[in-house]
């Protein structure tokens, strides 16, 4: 039976890393969410949603993005929500978890010295919390399984 996966990432490196996970999604029903409308060409044949790019410093854009991502999660009703960050991924994980989806956060490879702020915020509502750096792994998470995207 196909799993319904919602794959969420901000732009740039977050998106690139999410796309590197695509082989793991083969044979599943995947919808993508990101902040760059032009990325639709990189996931042909998949459902695609572009949301407002927002940070904690752009409060109105953040409210708009939260509403957009929440609507997408409600519409898609995914079995699994996976994200490489940042803000849209946090919202999608929270909503997905609330609706009973399994959730996975993969912290960006760029976060070499410490976990991302978004990564820290998802600790309590992610089923699988991963870092790509062994020295950032902890007893209570995140976990590192030795592979770098």
From TrEMBL:
Gene3D superfamilies tied to this protein: Glycogen Phosphorylase B
* Classification via InterPro entries: Oligosacch_biosynth_Alg14
**The entry's keywords:** Endoplasmic reticulum, Membrane, Transferase, Transmembrane, Transmembrane helix
Q: Which Pfam families match?
A: Alg14 (PF08660)
SUPFAM superfamilies referenced in this protein's UniProt entry, alphabetically? UDP-Glycosyltransferase/glycogen phosphorylase (SSF53756)
Report what the protein is called: UDP-N-acetylglucosamine--LPS N-acetylglucosamine transferase
Localization recorded for this chain is:
Endoplasmic reticulum membrane
State the membrane topology: Single-pass membrane protein
A biological process (GO) of this protein is: dolichol-linked oligosaccharide biosynthetic process
> Which GO molecular-function terms appear in the entry?
N-acetylglucosaminyldiphosphodolichol N-acetylglucosaminyltransferase activity
Coiled-coil stretches are none
**Does this entry carry the keyword Nucleus?**
no
- Report the domain of life of the source organism: Bacteria
Q: Which organism is it from?
A: Pseudoduganella ginsengisoli
Main location (coarse class)? endoplasmic reticulum
């Amino acid at each position: 039976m196909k799993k319904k996966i919602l794959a969420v990432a901000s732009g740039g490196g977050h998106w690139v890393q999410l796309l590197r996970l695509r082989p793991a999604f083969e044979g599943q029903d995947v919808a993508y969410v990101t902040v760059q409308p032009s990325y639709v060409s990189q996931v042909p044949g998949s459902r695609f949603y572009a949301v407002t790019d927002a940070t904690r410093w752009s409060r109105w854009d953040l409210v708009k993005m939260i509403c957009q991502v929440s609507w997408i999660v409600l519409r898609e009703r995914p079995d699994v929500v996976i994200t490489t960050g940042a803000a849209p991924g946090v919202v999608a994980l929270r909503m997905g978890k609330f609706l009973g989806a399994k959730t996975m956060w993969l912290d960006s490879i760029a976060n070499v010295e410490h976990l991302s702020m978004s990564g820290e915020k998802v600790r309590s509502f992610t089923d699988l919390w991963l870092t790509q750096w062994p020295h950032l792994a902890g007893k209570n998470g995140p976990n590192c399984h030795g592979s770098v995207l």
